[in-house]
């Protein structure tokens, strides 16, 4: 059996071979940059707006990868809208 190139081998260790082959088929030849944050700013704001009074700012910051300051700023933006 052939060995994967380094990046594909790293993915195979995290995922499985079937998923690595899907990634290869769909993205080969491309350079992919993964953002530092998994969740979009818009979706975080939407979630904050949905749960207005019951938000733990520090917990939300840790879960989303945004800073406490940014979460507070988003809350203020929601209040201003």
What distinguishing features does this structure have?
single chain; 81 residues; mainly alpha; 63% helix
What does this structure look like?
By secondary structure, the chain is mainly alpha-helical. It is built from 5 helices and no strands. The chain has helices at residues 6-14, 17-27, 41-50, 57-64, 68-80. Helix 3 (41-50) packs across helix 5 and helix 4 (57-64) packs across helix 5. The longest helix is centred in the last third of the chain and has 13 residues, at 68-80. It is elongated, with a radius of gyration of 19 Å. 5% of the residues are buried.
Task: Detail the topology: elements first, then pairings.
Layout: H1 6-14, H2 17-27, H3 41-50, H4 57-64, H5 68-80
The stretches of 5 or more residues where confidence is low (pLDDT under 50) are none
Determine the N-to-C terminus distance.
59 Å
Number of strands: 0
Query: What form results from the Cα inertia axes?
Result: elongated
The percentage of residues in β strands lies in under 5%
- The helicity comes to 55-70%
Largest sheet: none
Order of helices and strands: HHHHH
Average pLDDT, rounded to a whole number, is 93
How many helices? The count is 5
């Amino acid at each position: 059996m052939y060995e994967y190139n380094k990046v594909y081998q790293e993915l195979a260790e995290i995922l499985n071979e079937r998923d690595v082959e899907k990634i290869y088929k769909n993205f080969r030849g491309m350079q992919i940059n993964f953002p530092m944050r998994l969740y979009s700013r818009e979706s975080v704001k939407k979630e904050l707006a949905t749960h207005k009074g019951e938000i733990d700012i520090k917990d939300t910051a840790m879960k989303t990868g945004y800073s406490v300051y940014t979460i507070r700023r988003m809350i203020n933006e929601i209040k201003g809208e």
